Amino acid sequence: MARLNWKKYQDQFDHFSAELLSENSPGECAILSRIHNICKGDPAVDLLILGTEAPLIAFLEFLFARAEGPYSSVFPLYAHLIGLVFNISSSLKALLNLNAADAIGNMILNKRGRLKFAIADQLELSLLLEWWPTFGLAPITARQVFEAVLQKSDVSHRIRSEEPDLLLRLLEVFPEFQSEFFPPEKTPDDLLIGRQNISPLPSQRRYHRLYANLLEQGHDLRQMIKEEENRILPIQMRRNTFLSFLVKQLHNGECQICAITDNLRDSTCKSPITVHHIIPLSEGGADNARNMLVVCLDHHQEIHNGQIQVLLGDQIEVIHSGGKCMIPSNP
């Protein structure tokens, strides 16, 4: 028998979710009864999945899809409802508590199963882990999730093979564990250069969607940058990668050095774009737009090799073999 597909009932679930969010303390019996009534007549309505009624599982799948991810402004609302569902089903809660690290690991590796819930980067993982107990679930750590990922059958082999997509994906989500999986003789730039024609990483796809949604809501790019600069990051995080993405948008995804110093290149640079912290974070530099320089990977490597010197003042001073130039600093 086919499983109960929540998409058939998303309009009713949307309406019901709005009702639940408007009530102070909806009772568990009332929630179950209403969900069953919405799905009444479906051939799979009486199925039990993981010891839980199929309509409740369908509603949970719907909520995870609507929650979008911890970056989303609607996430706290749907997280509240997700917690209600877990509290209704003790069997579902027990199962997820037993397999939480593995389930979150699947989200990171895009093996998300039936709970369509994406984790774009370290910040989203941190936010999700902060919210996890509010779902009524046992707390879990990033270390537990990281170890669960490493234990998956193909991951160790892919790490040994230095597969760029996997290494960069792990670096997006687990930068604090970089020494445990990233080749010591390589840099992220090396891997990015090797995957220029591969589809964007999950974080970039998420950032583009989030950026587009914020623009549709009337947010100004400079306002977004200020909001991200003011975001309080979890203690283990040193950089906000969505902020770096926004600064790239400020410069239309183009290298600031290429745009000013054509004499550094025989032709327009086509290498991927990254963000360089002028005063390194490891040396106390701030993770803000003013301390960022949008550069191509070629120039980024030349900066780190000492071929180009970058100084931060009222403007950004770029010193190279052909002289020097001034670039306006970011707001």
TrEMBL record:
Highest taxon, organism lineage: Archaea
Coiled-coil portions: none
Annotated InterPro entries: HNH, HNH_nuc
GO molecular function terms listed in the Swiss-Prot or TrEMBL record: endonuclease activity; nucleic acid binding; zinc ion binding
Pfam families: HNH
Gene3D superfamilies: 1.10.30.50
Domain HNH nuclease span(s) in chain numbering: 242-301
Protein's UniProt name: HNH nuclease domain-containing protein
